[in-house]
Structures are given as structure tokens and as C-alpha cells.
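Project outcomes to date are best conveyed with an example. Our students and postdoctoral researchers have been running inverse folding experiments weekly, and each run begins with a structure described purely in C-alpha cells. The record below, which covers 257 residues, was selected by the lab manager from last quarter's runs and is presented without edits.
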């Protein structure tokens, strides 16, 4: 019953006018929202490409419809996840699991990253992947279009889980989480190509995103022992990582030149 009350109280905040007024007039809140949007963009550049592959087999008009239906489904799931998650994250064991999962995400990325790097040094990798969607079984029952919508929806939900967990590590304010999440989804669908091109020019940005995820995981775990990293310190770390990434990329380019 206590958990149910927490969830109800959390959703009630979505309709609190004073909360939204305070949010829109708070520069720190906008800084956190901006951080969430950038994080979403960095993490979802590859995801947007995967979504494009999922609808590639459909006619042009149906592609846009499938992505639009998936977009509304992603918003609905994000609304549920933020409302329920904001309540649950107040429980210490949820923070423990969430923080450890974020650290595992960062560890897994760098483990695979260095493994691929070693493999690339020894042999050329065959990067071709099949563009055929894995929906043939479902398509027999509900048709190719709706099977594609379901596939896009499942992919959106899978992408959202990691993003929502990282968001909880940044802030527990429901307004910040909701706006950051909603704008982040638009980021994935609207300007993912821009982030993809940016990451092609500065490939180190992907590693930077997972360094930030690891830091957010540590930040979440530290709250269990009543150590809170202040917003200014968090912003300095984020900006320092991004600036450092561009500096490192320039140094590598000069070295190769």
C-alpha cells in the first residue's frame, strides 16, 4: 500500500501547476533537462538507425505511420516509467539495483569496445547485417504493417529502459524527468541523424556517453550512504567530459596528419 501511495502521489505532481511554474523559472532545472536531452541524443543515435532498418521494407507512407505510432507508444511508456520509477527510486534497493545496472552498462560497453578494437587489429570485420525484419511469424496473424509497429514499439521500450534509469541518476524531480524524457524521444527521432554524423566525426563521443553513465551510476549509489553530488559539480563533470572529448579528437587528428 505504501508503494501504491507513492505512485499515486507522484502522478499527482504532474498536474501541480505550481510545480511546473517553479520548474520553468529555475535555471538549474533547465540545465538538467538539457543534460538529459544531450544524453538521450548520444545514446540513441545508433538506435535511430536501427529503427530506420525496422521500417525499411514498408512503403514510404507506411514507414512514417509506423514510426509515428511507435513514437506515441514511446511517449506513453516513458510517462508510465517515469511516474512509477520516480516513486520506486525512493526505495533504497531500487537505487542499488539501478546504480549497479548503470555501472554494468558502462563496463559492458568498454569491454566490448576494447574487444572489437583488438579484433580489428588482427582481422577486418565483416560489418554486414541483414536488413530483413524479424517479424515474419507475427506478420501472419496481424499483417506486415502492424507487426512492424509492434517491432518498433518493442525496440522503443528497450531503448527507453536504459535512458530512464540514467535519468533517475541525474534527478528525481518528476517535471525534469518528464520534459527531459519527452524532448529526448524527439531528439532520437528528429535530430538523430545530426548526432550520428557528429559521432562519425568524433567517434569518442560514444565512449564519453558511457563514461557519463558510469558516473551517474556512482552518483546514484552514493546517495545510499547520504553523499550527494551537487548540481554544479555534476555540470562541471559533464561539460569537462564533452570538452575533453573534442580536445582528444583534435589531438588524434593532428597525430594522424
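After processing, the design step wrote out the following sequence:
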Amino acid at each position: 500500500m505504501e508503494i501504491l501511495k507513492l505512485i499515486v502521489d507522484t502522478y499527482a505532481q504532474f498536474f501541480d501547476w505550481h510545480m511546473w511554474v517553479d520548474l520553468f523559472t529555475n535555471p538549474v532545472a533547465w540545465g538538467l533537462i538539457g543534460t538529459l536531452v544531450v544524453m538521450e541524443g548520444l545514446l540513441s543515435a545508433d538506435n535511430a538507425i536501427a529503427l530506420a532498418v525496422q521500417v525499411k521494407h514498408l512503403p514510404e507512407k507506411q514507414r512514417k505511420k509506423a514510426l509515428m505510432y511507435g513514437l506515441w507508444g514511446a511517449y506513453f511508456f516513458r510517462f508510465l516509467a517515469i511516474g512509477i520509477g520516480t516513486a520506486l527510486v525512493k526505495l533504497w534497493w531500487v537505487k542499488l539495483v539501478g546504480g549497479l545496472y548503470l555501472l554494468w552498462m558502462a563496463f559492458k560497453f568498454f569491454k566490448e569496445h576494447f574487444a572489437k578494437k583488438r579484433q580489428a587489429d588482427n582481422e577486418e570485420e565483416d560489418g554486414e547485417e541483414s536488413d530483413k525484419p524479424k517479424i515474419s511469424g507475427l506478420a501472419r496473424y496481424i499483417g506486415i504493417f502492424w507487426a512492424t509497429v509492434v517491432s518498433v514499439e518493442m525496440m522503443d521500450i528497450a531503448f527507453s529502459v536504459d535512458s530512464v534509469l540514467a535519468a533517475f541518476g541525474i534527478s528525481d524531480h518528476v517535471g525534469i524527468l518528464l520534459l527531459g524524457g519527452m524532448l529526448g524521444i524527439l531528439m532520437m527521432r528528429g535530430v538523430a541523424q545530426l548526432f550520428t554524423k557528429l559521432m562519425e566525426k568524433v567517434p569518442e563521443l560514444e565512449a564519453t556517453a558511457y563514461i557519463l553513465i558510469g558516473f551517474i551510476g556512482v552518483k546514484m549509489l552514493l546517495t545510499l550512504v547520504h553523499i550527494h553530488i551537487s548540481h554544479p559539480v555534476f555540470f562541471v563533470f559533464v561539460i569537462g567530459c564533452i570538452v575533453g572529448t573534442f580536445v582528444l579528437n583534435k589531438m588524434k587528428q593532428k597525430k594522424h596528419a
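The first helix runs from residue 2 to 13. The mean pLDDT is 77. The training component of this project remains on track.
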